[in-house]
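Late entry, written up from scratch paper. The run itself happened at the end of the previous shift, but nothing got recorded in the book at the time, so transcribing now.
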Amino acid sequence: MSMNENSPLNKIRTYFNALQNSAEEYLFVVDVNTGEVLMSDNFMRDFSFPSNETDDLDSLILPFIHHEDREIYENAMNEIDKGNASKDVSCDFRLLHKSGDYGWVNLSMAAGKDEFGQPILISGVVTRMDVKLRADHITGLLNRHSFDVALEAEVTGAPGIHGAVVVVGLDNFHVINETYGHHFGDIALRQIAQNITNILPPDIKLYKLDSDMFGMIIPDAMPEEIEIIFSSVQLCMREIRNVEDTIYCTASAGAAFYPTDANDSVTIVRYAEVALEIARKKGRDQICFFVKETYDRWRYDIGMQNLMQNCIARGCEDFFLCYQPQVDAKDGRLIGAEALLRWYDKDGSVVAPMQFIPMLEKSRMIIPVGHWIIENAVTTAKKWQKYMPDFQMSINISLYQLEEHMFFPFVKDCIERHEIDPTTITFELTESQSVYDWEFVNKQFADFHNLGIKIAMDDFGTGYSSLGFLKNFTCNVIKIDRVFIEDILKNDFDKNLVKYTVMLCHSIGMEVCIEGVEEEDAYIFLRDECKADYIQGFFFGYPEMENVFVRRLKK
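Output as recorded:
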């Protein structure tokens, strides 16, 4: 579009160009008489506008405004286009970024008048609302946007530049907010920000990132220097002063190096945040440096978790149960089976239980999956009891499932719907060494005892207080872990430990199932010397799918 030499826009072009080069906002000026528009170049850069000069602002900008917000823009333009606007006009609407996403912007306009008081120009400023504020209003530190801008300038600076990004996260800061209130939490954040700033070298700036996270850009950094800085951060974090008492808080941190780990700002920050997450998983109050192999494992775990979530959403279609025989120790007669969860990965391979079951536990996905396991195991047990009326089905139960208030009603309903004798069902408590409230656990299991379901403690002997468990836990069966069986014929300690544990359990009215039995000699010893009640292990059968296991019952 060619612009008239005498146009007011031409007369201010030089000033406009100087202004746009020094401003982050998006600028435009409209000639009231001709409708001609001059726009700053960053409009084209960020919003895919075809030109920075046009004779119709509305036709250029309207297609990029969210359809629900176009009336807001039009009303603002109508007000300013009347030509007699005596005050600034402002409005907020969503504008389509080049990325393909809509973002909120603020449009402010004012009319410029000639010596006769007649409007000749309309000047406008468009500001992205997500970057309008450069500082955090609580701590006074520069915010994430400022951090991102500074890091981008750093990594794209002079060739050969190197350094590190450190992300610091406060450990369980939400507890302070919940205990003392958000007002005190804000005061604590300001205090922490000031304490960290005071101990940092003058050339290192502290930024406030999301929630309770802080960031630092450390040029020319070495791992040893970062560890020293983080040690100082830990020391200044130790005390948060309150009117009534002193509150202790810790911090974890993650660090990634540029260009060693990555040479673009987005990836560097992501790697530092991953390292922070790993530091927290390791126990908090420490710093971890980004390691590619650890990151790959972390990504694999995240991918597995997403796959399992999708599987659950589809009705657990990729999960299946295998059944391992349990036999009477006296004569090797089949008495029942333990239902064991298995999972097909996206490529159709079977994933090892230790790879995915801990994820189910931690993410609490074990709750819906646990319902699926019980439903299918009870269904199978009912079918198999046509061949063997007293067939016993053992099902693993997680502590997380016990905490679900609908768990018992679901189990009771399942038992009633399938019309199965509840005394043929055993729940095995997994991860019993993690129990800290035995009163709660026993109270939950009392309902199952009353229903007729038997309770077993799984993996006995692997916790720190197994004898204490016997005192605290009301159960019917103790399952001795396979670790004590592997070398039982060669190890007198294991022989005596298993033998006297069985005697102890029998003396207090509990039965004992031995897991991991793979050899006949071990079986004979456990049967004759230890007087075990039940045996489970490869010597009597591997975990088998339903269509294979049922052949045992049809013999």
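The longest strand covers residues 102-113.
(Scratch paper discarded after transcription.)
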